[in-house]
User: What shape does this take?
Amino acid sequence: MRKFSGLLTLILVLTLPTFSHAQSASNTLKGKVEDNAKQPIQAASVSLLSGKDSSVVKITVSGKEGQFEFVNLPDGRYLVSYSAVGFATTYTPAFDLAGGQSKSLENVSLAVQTKDLKAATVIARKPLVEQKLDRMIVNVEAAVTNAGANALEVLEKSPGISVDKDGNISLKGKQGVAIYIDGRPSYLAGADLVNYLRTLNAGQLDQIEIMTNPPAKYDAAGNSGVINIKTKKTKTVGYSGSLSLGYGQGRYPKLNESFNFNYRKNKVNFFTTFGYNWYKNFNNLDIQRRFIDGTTKEVVSHFDQESKMRNNNQSFNGKVGMDFFATKKTTFGIVLGGFNNPGVFTNYSDVFISDNERNLNSITRANTRTERSWKNFNSNLNFRHVFDTTGKEITADVDYIAYRSQSDLQLFNSYYDAQGTPIMKADSIYGNLPQDINIYVAKADYLHPMKKNAKLEAGIKSSYVTTDNVAAYDSMQNGELVHDFRRSNSFVYKENINAAYINYSRPLTKKLSGQFGLRLENTIAEGRQVINDSSFKRNYTQLFPTAYLQYTVDKNNSFVLNYGRRVQRPSYEDMNPFILFLDKYTFEQGNPDLKPQFSHNIELTHTFKGFLNTTLNYTKTNDIITEVLNQRVTATDTVTFVVPRNIASQRQYGIAVSAGVPIAKWWTANIWANVYNNLYTGVVNGDAIELGATTGQFNITNLIKINKTLSAELSGYYRTPSVDGVFRIENFGMVNLGISQQIMKGKGTVRLNVRDLFWTQKIDGSSRFSNIDAAFQQERESRVFNVNFTYRFSKGKTATTKRRTAGSSDEQNRVKVEN
Assistant: This one.
């Protein structure tokens, strides 16, 4: 940690003298707050807001005589809001400050609020989708059909986001997205991430931030960008909270409950959230495989597989935290959280094996049962200090995250001839697969506002990760349990990433503004297979530049051009060489030789009248990590297995259009469309491949206000045929319907909805290249009817708090939780 603190000191020493002269912004704003009797109001909250988007610039409170003052304000357009306990919030008209102006506002009189604060519940209607300069924001509660859903299902119906048959998340047709939770990397990927997102109720979520080209402050990880899931954290002096109860019914029942609570008094703010899910679902997968001789290219045999998978899972998750406001400028915080996710996975497979003429030779029946438990503990210590009223501040975070998983596998195989008569003894495989992951992260960020609306940001981060994985397999032979040395292994991985960044933004002219960033990341990694006694070491340093240019043509038109270079490191489980069985003939295996993939992303966005956004994008990715089908055909062994490899490069270009259209006073439509072309080129098993397709993704959400307390939603999405790595996926989509009724004077809400009303989210695909010829059809329990009740309670007044953003982002995204 001496190197870490030394680097932070060096950054501060270098930047503070250089830019200290820039703090002399010249505009001043004064005013006074009164009541209707012209008596001054002390401790009223006075917020200076940006005239462009109403974002908060500065906040102060009125003195004993009701007076307030803002100093050192840059040129710009502003408005002011006034609020105080027992009074209605009031806003000024927008005004301009420029050229060293000293402006005095007219005295403002706040009207007494007529309703009892204890009984009043203010429900703000947020738009479903908001488009910002560098991100798109989805407000979760604005969509009725999100009630009863989990975080994965909320993502699945958000603009530009796709979830494939294995739960891999793509953004605008590109895999490798980094998932953050409250500004902190989730450290999860693949099946692990899917499992965790299913434990989060939509009732615990506030917003989804979608960033295709995040600034340098964020980790460079995430080939296609960053998705930040914000959970609820109320801002009330006093107490507030909500309770949500939900029941879902598909083929199987589901339960989802959540509780959020916040209490703030004097210098202490306490918050907590708890969630519980219980769900059982099905996933049916049919696979047709033609085994082809690699030399003669002749068909050797046909395998037709029918698998019926069932999940029966529970999840308990919780978070508690506290902020301590030591002074008006200094805040300390602590957050503790975790989850426990026990469950049982079963799979019943029939494999029909035929010769090259499709004459049935034999049938193998596989019965797989996996009892698993996935546990997590995460902790965060944070610090924030504001130096002065100009907004100069420093923040710091220290994180520790631990994951512990245990999987106990039982695989039984029985063999029959074409008439169903047993032809050989049944066999069995037993597996014990524990996994331990420990993540340590520390980071610090410094923000330095400057004159002429310029801003400098700088920061450092260091992370250290260890993973310890064991696979112990046994098999039953002649009635005795024998250790299987061929399949057993132990894999230990260690990784240290050190990073530093600098980001500078300012207006370049009256119409042109820019933001430029550079991030440096050094990676030191080593892995070792203990039993096989093989190892690797890697040490590399990379630069990741980002740039944004915004040009405002007039009040109706503006353009944003941005560029970023990003990296996607392999997930910890993808590097794990262990075998995970679906049945005797089908399994997955990790690859410790995986290298990181790097991408260049460029986007041009045009915004018309603040509601219509059109984006052109181009991405080039090298050494892309994708799952590759492999087949092994021998005299005694015929199997198909999936291994992640750096097989190819990917090129994508596309266009996306989004709009929020008020069709009538009671009807708003949010439309999003994306058409892109993907092309994969590379070499697999010695054969050149070139796979490409033009794909369209379409989302539409209709929000209908029937009356003051009753609203409805009709939404859906559709995706045309596409290429995901070496897989071609056919078209699919879904339609959702929901209705929401406020009750109990606005404190309660009842929501009824159905997702995938017509059960059309059935995925068909194929993979054909080299000697690989396979097709699959998948249907899962996507149609679910939900009823949800939410009760909100509060006593107090709204306070302004800044959501903490910790440093453990990229590392958590790469942990996989078995589902």
In short: Residues 144 and 738 are 6 Å apart (CA to CA). Residues 236-813 form a domain with the Maltoporin; Chain A fold (CATH 2.40.170.20). The chain has two domains: 2-110, 236-813. The chain is about 5% helix and 65% strand.
